[in-house]
Amino acid sequence: MSENSNLKIALTNATDLLNNNNLNESMQQLEEIVHVHPYNLKALSLLLEINIKLSDTDKAIEIINNLIQIEPDNASHYEKLIKIYQFLNDDSGYEFALIRLHKKFPSISTARLISNIYIKNDKEEESDQIIQDFFESDKNYSDLYKGIRHVKAGRLKLAEETYKKVIKKDKDNIDALRLLGLLAFKTKDYDISERLFMRVLEIDPTFSLAWDNLAKLFRVQNKLSKSIPAFENLIKLDPFNFEALVSLGTIYIKLSKYNQGINLYEKSLTIKPENPRVYLSLGHALKTIGQREKSEIAYHNAIKFYPFSGEAYWSLANLKTYKFSKKEISNMKLAINKNIHPNEQIQMHFALAKALESNNQFEDSFNHYKEGNWLQRKQIKYNSEEYKLSIDDVITFFKSNKDIFKSRANIKNDDPIFILGLPRSGSTLIEQILSSHSLIDGTQELPNIMAISRDIKLIDPNNGYPNNLMDIDTSSFNDFGQKYIDETRWARSSKPFFIDKMPNNFVHIGLIKLILPNAKIIDARRNPMDACFSCFKQYFAKGQHFTYDLDDIARYYKDYLRLMDFWNELFPREIFTIHYEDIINNPNKKIRELLNFCNVEFENSCLDFHKSKRPVKTASSEQVRQPMYKTGLDYWKNYRNNLDILINHFPDYDK
Fold this sequence. Notes:
Elements: H1 3-19, H2 23-36, H3 41-53, H4 57-70, H5 75-88, H6 91-104, H7 108-120, H8 124-137, H9 142-152, H10 156-169, H11 174-186, H12 190-203, H13 208-220, H14 224-237, H15 242-254, H16 258-271, H17 276-288, H18 292-305, H19 310-317, H20 326-336, H21 342-358, H22 362-377, H23 384-400, E1 416-421, H24 427-435, E2 440-444, H25 448-457, H26 474-487, E3 497-500, H27 509-515, E4 520-525, H28 528-536, H29 550-570, E5 575-579, H30 580-585, H31 587-597, H32 644-649
Parallel strand pairs: 1-3, 1-4, 2-3, 4-5
Helix pairs in contact: 1-2, 1-3, 2-3, 3-4, 4-5, 5-6, 6-7, 7-8, 8-9, 9-10, 9-11, 10-11, 11-12, 12-13, 13-14, 14-15, 15-16, 16-17, 17-18, 18-19, 19-21, 20-21, 21-22, 23-29, 28-29
């Protein structure tokens, strides 16, 4: 009998054994065949089938690799290898096998699968690149690649025409639709971008990169509620997408849903447990809801995984009552002399200054405050003379156009309570007192009034704000007022009144009176020496550019007083001015006056404001969780020798 006849009989016997589920006997027969005929495809394929059934994945992988060597142009071998790694939940093996298939048999489907893997691993550039590379290599997708090249060269109109040409041929081409959506995103045509991304996802709901694009589109527009389902769908497709978990957590924090945000941060840290950035965000969230000890642990972890984190050290210092150890102070001094990022160095100076201040080393403390402020001042653009002129413009406009208030809104809403003034002047204390009342909701520093002022400015950019107010009628003022009420609803509950404590709103009191004539306005004041120096000691995460130079701060304070004097003259008895020093020295009297102005009855809970469990986002969050204390009064005197600039501006307070 010939060798081929023997082989045929042996294969038939092995096949019969396999069909009768005699797996071990069949495998033994096949292994004997392979020993003699190592390149027999039929025997190897049957062996592969048996090992897969027996869940012997190591042996199965070995056989597949042999098959690939024998038949490198058979795509099914590569596909089986991918399926085995999927079965094993071996992400790295799956990625390797998928890339191997894509290199040998490139297709848009494998490109998308690899793109999804890169998104999962926070490699957004690589995610886009793998698809772009495929477009470049495949002549059927050459038009899409041309469009990408046009975008990179800044030829956006040509890119748009190219993508539309593809869509005209194939209206469901999700790559062309997504790329056109990205182009609209780039040119800030957000509505068009949204429609295109949504169309892509209607066609292929599993396209992770499109979900990522849509989520970020919503986030950049501050459409936080809309971005939540987009990120959630991305996470459903990829439960271990670190970036998506962190991004969704941050959105929940911004929406004051702190527990959901904290849970997502903690989940993301199970994926990347050494990520200092997430520990910082976690610490900030825990601080806001009053979980002081846990927030310290989070900040310490941020430092553990990034010892030069000036932000983490400053976050500890910004708790205001944290006591740094000698070791921590030593580490900060060493870090400052290292070649670290300027923003980290600036915050390290502020943190070290606070640490030395707590040890009553006021001279050394001031030197670090001074250096930190100077380094920050060099990074920002602020001109005190330009700011003075802008205040002049506001005063001149409203002084010359008092009749504008005849057209003010007629909406009846009296629920907003605005607390405004300079930062670090007691506004958080006043908010904590008021929000301890059963009828008043505390929110945060809401940006909505400033956003409305920017909208008005854009009505005619050449005319600007406040001049464009002259072109607005009662109906439009009503719309702006209702817009404010509607767009701040997410930040509050159903209580009759709510607080907006954005300090910079003092510039926009005229606008507030036009769109919300029944709103309450509270001016939180502090003596200029303490107020100005307290601003100088504070590193602000964003904004408040006037605070990084003592002369700038003093001039800003004077402009604030000048404008408030004007508003009080224009709206007599409609603005309640409360001095920090008065509320500290006579809380019972001043709190009753404050509540009376807000048209609510006195409640003892307002005296026990420090017992409130509400979230507090500002720098004073830990201070307002303590009973009132007087140690902050005239605190600037500890630094008198270094505050000649302020003393020269406010000589009456140097007593």
